[in-house]
Write a structure and sequence with these properties.
Blueprint (H helix, E strand, L loop, with lengths): L2 H18 L26 H4 L4 H5 L7 H4 L7 E5 L5 H10 L4 E6 L2 H14 L4 E5 L12 E7 L8 H11 E14 L5 H4 L2 H5 L6 E2 H11 L2 E10 L2 H8 L6 H8 L3 E9 L11
Parallel strand pairs: 1-2, 1-4, 2-3, 4-5, 5-6
Antiparallel strand pairs: 5-8, 7-8
């Protein structure tokens, strides 16, 4: 089965668990997403943020950071969230850009889209639109959004270069790219890279930090910066490797400190036209 189909299946199952009430938290024993779980998804949002949202939006959060807390969002701007899931980052962004702004969420999973739209209804947020589609083919016109955000989703794509080119295309000149993602520093054992469940769990598909910078630059971005927000220690590495069909004791010492959640910033040059560099 292709990575994209595995991702769609697993995230669809996660949405159904939230809707059925069987998920006590995104990382509880009853709602594990076969990998994208504690410690990666834990403690990302403060109570002031989650208190504004439906419980289902919080439970469906499967990211690795909080891009809405780190990204600059201004009233009246248009924001696009790639891989919006249950909608938590879209709803938080919509409140920050205000009634004169707009927040789009893009997801390929019907179950997550249904959950996100229900969460929007419960939250009473009107300046939001959830779109069905793939992050490699964003269904929005050139130069149409001010900010692209994403939360531990780009690493799930098998064609990250295309995702970044699409993000560049839809951004207005001077627009900002501001995502949370898992990145690596140093070589990662091949048995981790080749494990499908670890790919779905935000680990196997993670780019090395210099690769991320290179792909962003190739897509046309400048002012590129990668800021680590959480570096995973040996016990955290053990937690996300356990039960994934790998020899944890052999691998953990080789991955300690190599996986991290990071906030990745870049800009589309002010002189760029459509999907091309100036």
């Amino acid at each position: 089965m292709e990575i994209k189909e595995v991702v769609k299946e697993k995230y669809g199952q996660a949405a159904l668990r939230v809707n059925s009430g069987s998920a006590s938290s995104c990382c509880g024993s009853s709602s594990s997403l076969d990998g994208c779980c504690d410690p990666i998804t834990s403690n990302l949002y403060d109570a002031a943020q989650t208190g504004e949202l439906p419980q289902e939006a919080v439970l469906a959060s499967l990211g690795c950071g909080n891009p809405t807390a780190l990204a600059q969002l201004n009233p009246g701007e248009t924001v696009l969230d790639l891989g919006s899931g249950g909608g938590i980052d879209v709803l938080l962004s919509a409140r920050r850009v205000g009634p004169s702004g707009k927040a789009y969420g893009l997801d390929m999973t019907d179950e997550m889209l249904a959950l996100a739209r229900e969460n929007q209804h419960k939250a009473g947020v009107e300046n939001v639109e959830f779109l069905k589609g793939e992050i490699e083919n964003i269904p929005l016109p050139d130069n149409s959004v001010d900010v692209v955000i994403s939360n531990c989703v780009i690493n799930l794509s098998g064609d990250k270069g295309r995702v970044l080119r699409e993000a560049f295309r839809v951004l207005k000149p001077g627009g900002r790219f501001a995502v949370s993602d898992v990145v690596t520093r140093g070589d990662v054992p091949p048995q981790v890279r080749q494990n499908v469940l670890l790919w779905v769990g935000c680990i196997a598909g993670a780019l090395q930090d210099y690769e991320y910078v290179s792909k962003l630059a190739k897509a046309g971005f400048d002012d590129i910066d990668i800021e680590p927000t959480r570096v995973y220690d040996i016990e955290e590495a053990r937690a996300f490797l356990s039960g994934r069909g790998v020899d944890v004791d052999a691998i953990v010492p080789r991955v300690q400190g190599k996986f991290m959640s990071a906030f990745i910033r870049a800009k589309k040059p002010a002189g760029a036209v459509a999907g091309h560099c100036a």
